[in-house]
Fold each of these.
Amino acid sequence: MSDFREFASRDALYEEAASRIASALTAAVSEHGKGHAALAGGSTPKPIYERMGRDGTVPWDKVVLTLTDERMAPPGDPASNEAMIRKALEGGPGENATLVPLFEETDGLPDQDIILLGMGTDGHFASLFPGAKELAEGLADKAPPVLKVVPDPLPAHAPFPRLSLSLPAILSAGEIIIAITGEEKRSVLDRAREDGPVEELPVRALLRSDHPNITFFWAP
């Protein structure tokens, strides 16, 4: 079950998403001594991380960040989601968080307190793409926490295999936010609410989940 929040501007969406992540991490540190968040790559989330990383009320030295997915690009390649997140946090209190890369062989990946996802115009989230031969495995109830995915076709702007959190790993989080912008993605989300196979629009797996705390954030 999911909620939907509409914002008047992208800046308003960025501010609220940053605040929600910061609040979830602060609460987790207070309760458990550590805060865990998995963060999406792509262009939409970067302003969220820049705002989040400037929040001096978060005990960043007790926060562990990881990624929802990663392009298997050479070290330092601009296509790296890890590099983008590090750059977004640079210069603010948030750079004191521990950022753990996503590895294919992951034992003991902790449940995340909060996860931020994006959604593509093809309905993918994390790196669970329609048409990928690994999609069924990534959506399966007993999927491994992290799996290697090869989008088909490979996007021209980032022609790399990917690592992705699986659906069960994502649904184990305490809170999930999916941040999307623009009319095209709003149209995709509206279509995903209609009857149809999850394999056609993987985001349907989130829309149809019984997770109690999934929210879609949208701004024009």
Amino acid sequence: MRFNYNRLKAERVAKGFTVQDMANVLGVTKGTYSKKENGKLPVTVDDFVVISNKLEIPIDHINIFFTLNVSKMATNTI
């Protein structure tokens, strides 16, 4: 599984939050949050809990932030 950073940004924008809003909720600088959202710094489990709460993502919808890594060979059927 891979974390979908594009979805993180899309959800933030859709909810009307700025990068600064998210930085404030995490207690980090705007630049640090931006790096997390762009995949240059890791989003920790603790970060993710705070972010998903701020975005009001129900626990049963958390999977929207993850994509499966499926190799091309695995998708070929005979």
